[in-house]
Amino acid sequence: DQQVKQNSPSLSVQEGRISILNCDYTNSMFDYFLWYKKYPAEGPTFLISISSIKDKNEDGRFTVFLNKSAKHLSLHIVPSQPGDSAVYFCAASAENSGGSNYKLTFGKGTLLTVNP
Amino acid sequence: DTGVSQDPRHKITKRGQNVTFRCDPISEHNRLYWYRQTLGQGPEFLTYFQNEAQLEKSRLLSDRFSAERPKGSFSTLEIQRTEQGDSAMYLCASSALSPSVSTDTQYFGPGTRLTVL
After folding, report:
1. Cross-chain Cβ contact B48/A102 below 8 Å
2. CB distance from B72 to chain A under 8 Å?
């Protein structure tokens, strides 16, 4: 049962344009969402996160949008650069009985290729 | 501030052998996590520690797997009697949970790539 879904295995974008990566989730208990970037043979690198009390969070070229009613989030990268080429993972967590979030549930990832 | 480190980066072993991996978290991070990633999949949660206490283990963690964090600092993950299905990338992550922060941003190490022949 895939609770976090990234339905696009790959995305190709021209340098300077906007990249939009999408993620859907099914577990309504998820209340914290993160995006990670991963290069081959390396561990995931944290990019940006958003709490369920917000609908938008921005950090430089990266913006994450959360639509709770649709159980959908997206990562916008503007402008896209060739160095952004990597696999992007969406992850989510739920608050546990102790009142804090912990384990992450990941999607399968989207391979972003930014062409010069 | 150094990041999460893992050792070894690569391990090739024969089926039936035991292997042990080490993870050194970011200093003063009180939470430590182990995940496993196979080809074409996202990382899957295995277990986590808060300080030295192991608070949850996934059903993915069979009896052949054991993890420890004896002094609340580094952690080890041991796999006994390895099987070919254990071949994967084993990722360690750490985070700092404080009374004022309930959300948990985890920072990952480079991973240990295990190949079981």
Report:
1. yes
2. no
Strand partners, B77: B21, B67
In total, the C-beta contacts within 8 angstroms joining chain A to chain B are 68
Backbone φ and ψ of B89, nearest 5°: -95, 125
Question: Are A47 and B106 contacting, i.e. CB atoms less than 8 angstroms apart?
Answer: no
Tell me: pLDDT of A100 over 90. no
A28-50 pLDDT, tens digit per residue, is 999 999 999 999 888 999 999 99
Which tokens go with A39?
A: 């290069």
Buried-exposed string B97-113: b where 16+ CB fall within 10 A, e elsewhere = beeeebbbbbbbbbbbb
Give B1→chain A minimum CA distance, Å: 15
With a cut of 90, say whether residue A96 has pLDDT above it. no
Residue of B nearest to A41 (CA): B110
The rounded Cα A9 to chain-centroid distance in angstroms is: 13
Mean pLDDT of A64-80: 97
Q: Cβ atoms within 10 A of the Cβ of A108, count?
A: 16
Are the Cβ atoms of B104 and A91 closer than 8 angstroms?
A: no
| CA distance, residue A47 to nearest chain B CA (Å) | 10
**Which chain B residue shows the shortest CA-CA distance from A6?**
B42
Query: What does the mean pLDDT of chain A come to?
Result: 94
Span of A19-23, B80-84, B99-103, B112-116 with lowest mean pLDDT: B99-103
